[in-house]
Amino acid sequence: MFVLINASLIIALAGLVCFAAIVLLRRYASLLGLVQNAGERSSHTGQKPTGGGLGIVLAASLAGGWIVIDGQTYLAVPVVAALALGLVGLLDDRGKLNISQRLLAQGTFLVVIIIYLQSVFSFSQYIDWLGPAWLALPIIVLAGVLWINLFNFMDGIDGLAASELVFVLSAMELLVLTQPEAALSGLPLWLISIAVAALVFLLFNWQPSLIFMGDAGAYFFAAVIIIGALFFLVNGALSPAAAIILVAMFVSDSLVTLLFRMAGGFRFSEGHKTHAYQKLSRRWSHARVVVLYMSINLFWLLPLAFIVQKTMFDPVICVFIAYMPLVLFMVLSRAGRVEHV
């Protein structure tokens, strides 16, 4: 009973801190230099407060600190590393970083997490299917940096990125907590707290949004998903194929868009509005696109991830089945291609 009460208090703390932080961020956005003007990548007009993801970062950090003090000390490094990357995103929101500095910070985050996992859990033995450690570990670092940027690219309409975080964390929790030895403590409790904070943020970010998430949130969200997937992989609670399937919607849209744009001679870092979700939002609405993407997550990707998690089918084939229709959908949506009027 005490454990349940303690967990409930931590989750409630995350939600309340996030709510209070976002209210304050909206009020003092101009003073903090957190106002976003419409640009090439924007799907809005005029000015709007940004950096709302900082509310989730603060809430998650306090919840994580409580869990660490409560005895789950193995979480200290990932909590601090994710907080640091979120603060890097905040600097980026204020226009203080160039692309080299961003990539350096993201790479440093991944290196810290990998070194920690390797030193404490001999991480390389869990990814030997990628090859020897000297090859597998750099692959994970590069894939993680790519994921952080792909996730950031998907934060272009109201409610989408926060909804994706809620889905991925909740789905990972669902798959992990069905394991016989699972318990609501440590990492699972921290991730649930973050999901609750993200739900609170969605109250302010759903169309028409009152505040944007900003890079502070996008970097942190992507980092938390990486931490959850890697730590659950280490303790055998989550299949790597299941984790790859759960993020298929974002990976398919952002990666297909990126590849088509690079093939068209555009710089990968150049702002644009050619993602499939952005094109769909101009035809429909932000909310309808979010509902579509989350429906695909729930009714297509989650069942496939469950099948893989329960080893009911070959994981490689399941990953292929999950991604192929999504990639085709993005190609048919002309993701990454400029529409000539």
Task: Briefly summarize what is shown.
With 341 residues, the protein is an all-alpha fold. It has helices spanning 2-27, 29-32, 53-69, 76-93, 99-121, 133-153, 160-177, 186-205, 214-234, 240-246, 248-263, 276-283, 286-309, 315-332, and strands spanning 35-37, 47-49.
Structure description:
By secondary structure, the protein is an all-alpha fold. It folds into 2 domains: 1-33 and 46-238, no CATH class; 239-341, no CATH class. The chain has 14 helices and 2 strands; from the N terminus they run ααββαααααααααααα. The protein has a two-stranded antiparallel sheet with strand order 1-2. Helix 1 runs antiparallel to helix 3, helix 4 packs antiparallel against helix 5 and helix 7 runs antiparallel to helix 8.
Total strands: the figure is 2
- If you compute it from the alpha carbons, what radius of gyration comes out, rounded to the nearest whole angstrom? 19 Å
Strand order of the largest sheet: 1-2
* Strand content bin: under 5%
Distance between the termini: 63 Å
Q: How many domains, as an integer?
A: 2
Give the low-pLDDT segments.
none
Largest sheet: 2 strands, antiparallel
Average pLDDT figure: 91
What is the ordering of alpha helices and beta strands? HHEEHHHHHHHHHHHH
Computed structural class: mainly alpha
